[in-house]
Write a structure and sequence with these properties.
By secondary structure, this protein is α/β, with parallel strands linked by helices. Helices cover 40% and strands 17% of the residues. Strands 3-2-1-4-5-6-11 form a seven-stranded parallel β-sheet, sandwiched between helices. The protein has a three-stranded mixed β-sheet with strand order 12-9-14. A two-stranded parallel sheet has the order 7-10. Helix 1 packs across helix 7 and helix 6 crosses helix 8. The protein starts with a strand and ends with a helix.
C-alpha cells in the first residue's frame, strides 16, 4: 500500500513517516510547512507542499502517487491559541479533515489513520481513562479533535471507510536529535528552556490529591506513537469496510510533574536546582492516565520506551538544535 501522511514534516509526523518507511510502506508527505521542516522528510520520500484545505491539491497528490491510505496528522494543536483563535482552529482542523475526506471519497481511498488527542476527555475523574470515558473537551482544540472523530465515524458508517482514531497522551522524546521537538509547549522542552535561561523550572499546582501534590500524566515516547500508527495502518490494510477504531495511545502508567522535573534535572546535570512552585493553572485535571488495554487487544501494540529514554533523547535533540 501507499500512504499519504499529512503533516509528515512535523515533529510527530516525521517520526511516523520514518516508521512507515522502515516498515516497508510507500509514503508521500503533504505539509504546508507552517510548523514542519522539509529537512525532516527522508530522502526519497516525495514532499508536496500545501494545505489539507486545498481539495484539488489533495486529489492530484492521491492520484499521482497511487495513494491507497491516509495518515492524517496535520492540525493546529496549541490549546491556548485555540482559545484565542477558535475560528482558525475549526477551519484548519475540522474543515481541513472534511476536505480530506471528500478528496478520499472522490479518489476511492478508504483507509484513514487519524491523529486525535487525550484532550477530547477534558478533566476525567477516573484512575484510568478508557476509550469509553465520557468526552468533555475543555477548549476548542479538544473540541476539534472530538468533532473530527465524529465525522470519521459517520463516514465509516455511511461510506464503508476503514478508520482508526488514535488518542495520544503526553508525547516526548525523539528517535534522533534532528527529529526532536523544537517547540516549547510541552513539559520537557519547557523545563529545558527555563534551565537555558538560568531559571528554575516552574510547577503549576502542588496541592492536588496525588502522591506528591502535583498533576499526574501519562507520558509516551514519540517513537511509540509512530509505531502505533504503523500498527494501525497494517490493521486497516486487512480490515473490513466500516471498521472504526478509537484507541488510546499511552503507556498506562502515571508520572507526576514533580517526578518528571526531577528526572529532567538529573539527566541535564542540574540536580542542584529546586523547582519553583506556582499556583494551579485553570483547567488542569489532577490525573489523566490512559488505559492501554484496547490498543493491545486490537492491534497487539504496546509502548516500549521508558521515561528516561524520553528525557535523554529530548535533551540530545534540544542541544542539537541549539548548537
Amino acid at each position: 500500500m501507499s500512504w499519504l501522511v499529512t503533516g509528515g514534516a512535523g515533529y510527530i509526523g516525521a517520526h511516523v513517516v520514518r516508521a512507515m518507511v522502515a516498515g516497508g510502506a510507500g509514503v508521500v508527505v503533504c505539509d504546508d510547512l507552517s510548523t514542519g521542516s522539509a529537512e525532516r522528510v527522508p530522502a526519497g520520500v516525495p514532499l508536496v507542499v500545501g494545505s489539507v484545505l486545498d481539495a484539488t491539491l489533495l486529489e492530484r497528490t492521491i492520484r499521482d502517487h497511487g495513494v491507497t491510505g491516509v495518515v492524517h496528522i496535520a492540525a493546529k494543536k496549541q490549546v491556548g491559541e485555540s482559545v484565542e483563535r477558535p475560528l482558525h482552529y475549526y477551519r484548519e482542523n475540522v474543515t481541513g479533515l472534511q476536505t480530506l475526506l471528500e478528496a478520499m471519497a472522490a479518489t476511492g481511498v478508504e483507509r484513514l489513520v487519524f491523529s486525535s488527542s487525550a484532550a477530547v476527555y477534558g478533566m476525567p475523574d477516573v484512575d484510568l481513562v478508557t476509550e469509553d470515558t465520557p468526552c468533555v473537551p475543555m477548549n476548542p482544540y479538544g473540541e476539534t479533535k472530538l468533532i473530527g472523530e465524529w465525522l470519521i465515524n459517520a463516514a465509516a458508517r455511511a461510506h464503508g471507510l476503514r478508520a482508526a482514531c488514535l488518542r495520544y497522551f503526553n508525547v516526548a522524546g525523539a528517535a534522533a536529535p534532528d527529529l526532536a521537538d523544537t517547540g516549547v509547549t510541552n513539559l520537557v522542552p519547557m523545563v529545558f528552556e527555563r534551565l537555558e535561561a538560568g531559571e528554575a523550572p516552574r510547577i503549576f499546582g502542588a496541592d492536588y490529591a496525588t502522591q506528591d501534590g502535583t498533576c499526574v500524566r501519562d507520558y509516551i515516547h514519540v517513537q511509540d506513537i509512530a509505531s502505533a500508527h504503523l500498527a494501525a495502518a497494517r490493521h486497516l490494510a486487512e480490515a473490513p469496510a466500516g471498521t472504526a477504531l478509537t484507541l488510546n495511545v499511552g503507556r498506562g502508567e502515571g508520572s507526576s510533574v514533580l517526578e518528571m522535573v526531577e528526572r529532567i534535572l538529573k539527566v541535564t546535570g542540574r540536580g542542584d536546582v529546586k523547582p519553583e512552585l506556582a499556583a494551579r493553572r485553570a483547567g488542569d485535571p489532577a490525573r489523566v492516565v490512559a488505559s492501554a488495554e484496547r490498543i493491545r487487544a486490537e492491534l497487539g501494540w504496546t509502548a516500549r520506551h521508558d521515561l528516561d529514554e524520553m528525557i535523554e533523547s529530548a535533551w540530545a535533540g534540544w542541544r542539537h538544535h541549539r548548537g
